[in-house]
## 1
Amino acid sequence: MQASSYRYFPTTKLITIALVTSLACAMSKDARPAPGAEELPPAGPPLTTAEPQALTTVASSTPVGSKTASSTASTIGRDSAAKDPPVTVPSVKGRTKKDSLALVKAVSAGLNNPDWPVKTAQQLPGSILPGRRIVAFYGNPLSKKMGILGELPPDQMLAKFDKEIAAWQKADPRTPVQPALHLIAVVAQGAPGRDGKYRLRMTDSLIEKVASWAATKNALVFLDVQVGHSTVQEELPRLVPFLKRPNFHLGIDPEFSMKLRNVGKEEGATRERSKPGARIGTMDASDVNFAIGLLSDIVKQNNLPPKVLVVHRFTRNMLTNAKQIKLDPRVQVVIDMDGWGQPWLKYDSYRAYVEAEPVQFTGFKLFYHNDTKKGDPILTPSEVLLLNPKPHYIQYQ
């Protein structure tokens, strides 16, 4: 089947008609889904040791349903006269009409939201975004369950990494791909540990190991933080020596930020924190602003190019008061759509939780296992690039 193309028109109605028509032609109703990948095993008992030996049982191996992309998206935006060049809709085996309609809504919402693209100060010299697209492998070398970074032996992982980089470069030749390895440097866990913080800090030697792999690919290193019962204010200062390096950047994960909440009826309510993985956590704009401020100071004090800050999100409550995030030209903020599921779920979540609340740049996460649980092929670079705004940060787990 030949891929079909269309051109956007200046009204929402015409955009939707054109997208529906072309997608309906391109996506076969009778296409059989490809066989699903092997499902991730459930999390085992949590770690309790302070010095990691193997992270085969950490909380972030994803409790069933906890990370699934949400389908509560609602249509946003208003009519816009924006015109885009023709877009080619790829014919991918296994896509459904529901996937196509979700993509239509996501593209339309992005085009018609007047806050996209976000208006910011001119990017400083050395800025990575938007001139390059970051493609990252995520996880932890001590665990096969937490992502591709640790699932395969290093040589095999890096060979697979090369193939993904090449695929993204082919899909968008105009935007150079910047490789990155995204290490979970602070791991949330189900046991309190010695200090009761429900998180495990990775050793400097492990961070150096990932940095050495990154060096062979001229890749960036992202240090991801899952705070558990700790806070970004407590966890980030320890990572400053690494963040002073020009190729080191930061990620923060609200999913495992377990803040105090009321439990019980109003009169007898108590304040407590859930264990990481028992429910989806949350961060506030104030947490993001602290991370921005810390990174900005590092850039200024060490005469470095701007840093990138990735904030994971796949529900509305994961990031509260997003409009109060204060941008800084020394820090480029990416809101990363971090949910897993079928394509329509991922498109819906991108629309509801990333497009609906513009911050600066957008990201999109792809799961080798969880996205394919029901037989759907993993989204291709060409399919992800149909979104508007187009994600400038891509993460594989």
## 2
Amino acid sequence: MKIRFNLKLSQSLRLTPLLQQSIKLLQASQSELNQLIEDYINDNIFLELEDQPESNSVSQSNFNSSKEISFKNDYSYELFDTEIKNQTLKEYLVENLSIFSFTDRDQIIFLVLIDSINDDGYLIEPLENIIEAMPFEPIAELKELEDILTLIQNSSSPGIGARNLSECLSLQLKVIKGNKKLTDITFKICNEFLNLLGNKNYSLLKNNLKCDDSELNEAIKLIKSLNPKPGQVFQRIDPQDFIKADTKVEKSDGRWDVSLIEDNFLRLKIIEDYQDIAKTDSDKFDKESKDKLQEAKWLIKNLRERSITIIRVSRAIMKKQIDFLEKGKLFLKPLILKNIAEELDLHESTISRVTTNKFISSPHGIFELKYFFGSTIKIDNGNDLSSKAILFRIKELIKNESSSSPFSDEQLSLLLKKEGIQIARRTIAKYRTILRILPTNQRKKTQL
């Protein structure tokens, strides 16, 4: 056996810790950034918020003991937490069904099933597919899964664990007690005639159900009271999730000015006492402490650069959207990332990170910075128009249409052509789908 040495030359991209931290902060939304800052404060004894009262002075002799206390406090907790539960759907199901005695095998099936239930409350995978993914010996049988799914459906919020809309509504109807004939009619609609109801084919519905106008009206009223997405009530609400703008654009002395909303950001500083110790007697610091001090300095520097980048990008975008600021959404100018990247001498990936989950407050509402980027449509006067402006115009036309005679996609296309916007009927249909607007026959309101 021969031992050989091979020399290989290759290139690789390695990110320094400073650059990694910079990218992480740049792509974070405001709520994510504030959480990151809190995590850094909890993990780094050198950091504190600027608006917090200054900490008690510390001496060189108690530095290490103070650091130890800080780390211990990271794990403190309140034993009697009186906060109202704010559960996810999965947490609710696990807690609600933990009263049942499951075998080890059933417990695995149960956990796999609830993992397959989406945020709306629906089982998104067919049971046959779930069986194939289970590492069971012997292989799980369909009846095993059906039994536990039935348990989930009957022992949780009505509608949870349904495999389709029909089953979801039927599960909710089962717990409603009332007029038997009305319940029977409603069950039949949910199980057999949802398509007819969706298309508002009331005459055929009455014929199939053998009921009169009054009974059908009551059945439809009952169905409308049901929840088609029962899982949504378990969406975790986090106070940090409410949108707050990072920047704002306002008119002052005839000019549009963009500024950073600094009140929405947590600001950091290095605790002065520890910084003084580092300057006067660095030998008192171990390697871990020196690393933490360097990390604190990097963090403050990167946060400052993040704010500068956001304000630069916001100003560059708004400079190109004066018509939007003056006249509204219909006058949005189309932009691509490359436009802003070249103007600011930044990489397109940086612009993408800055504009994602960063928001600007304008006279027309709060918008994600990425909202101002999109495809272009030529209009008759030779100018370009943003596709988002077309979406807004279609929405406005449909909003003002007659409920008894709504516009077809072809009619919408003709109306836009009169305004100088050349757009095909199929494109109207695509944009209407994006706007989640129903087709003409389903928007039409008729009397029963």
## 3
Amino acid sequence: MQQQTHQLANSLSRRSILRLLAGFIVTMSLDGCVQSASSSSATPTPRPAGTVLSLYRGHKLRVTAVAWAPDGMYIASGSLDKTVQIWAANPSDHFHPFIYRGHDAGVNALDWSPDSRRVVSGASDKTVQIWDALTGEHVTICRGHTDSVMTVAWSHDGKYIASGSADGTVRLWDAATGAQRYVYRGHTGSVNSVCWSPDSQRLVSGSSDKTVQILDATTGKHIFTYRGHTSTISSVSWSPDGTRIASGSWDKTVQVWNAATGKVVYIYDGYNVKAAQTNDTAGVLPDLVFVVAWSHNGKRIAAVTQVYCGDNCGVVVVWDADTERNVTFYIDTPVFALAWSPDDTRFVSSTDVTTQGTGPNASESDPEAGSYAQITQA
């Protein structure tokens, strides 16, 4: 599957690829899962939103997943090149990147343990792997999924890991032993996103079956199904206070709703592009939504979408989580994953700079071409 995805990337537009891979989303939603942490690194001088602060160029193929360590010191990035790479969030630290090579296929998802010591990664090889973030020492490999692992999330209490797969299941694993606790089979399509409630008592999952489902994390029993979307759910994110859930979809909306009742608080569907060009508070009209991520302080929501400026153009939109007022947006090259820094001042995202050429050596004609992870001002 990885080889086919790479071949498609060389021959088709981004929009075409994403529409063809309706059941196989490489934009992972773990980036939207909130982790309670504070950054130990110095807060940079504020710059305009979207300003690129640093680039990481270690991967050979598209970067599909990114996650910021809860202690703020390191970033993990996963790629179709089968690796997960750990690198310093502050480039001046000169930390030599650690490269984890435990997977046999492209990495689709990853997350940090709450103590920032371990990483869990999920891949197209159908495995969930837990390992030491700085030494790469295997802790355990979790086997059970029968198709690509699309999303993983570590519980806030550190005890469990949830994973979702193209096989339509959500599985819960013991983080210490890798033992499978239960299998949830409530979805009828690929599970593209899972996220924990802040108290680690509930799980929310989003699927290609157009539903968002909440289950009891202890028992795996179904609690509630949200049916507000009309297309694939790509990303879910639980508010830090536990009261609301934001879900992003290919129906071009982000819907914010009450986690207990399912009552819609509001539906964010963007604003007019032409108006945004003259007034940056007006926002933009989104296309397919790929990532939705609640800030750690609960004040803002970020979404990754497309904008009507061509197949190879993406946009990051940020708005006030309570009022829906658009805060800012910036247009970038295609963005495939995004996560807030623990102090909510920066984003880490993956981006793909392509050239007009095709084939494996196309990037040689353009020194700026390639797949990067980058840190930008939030």
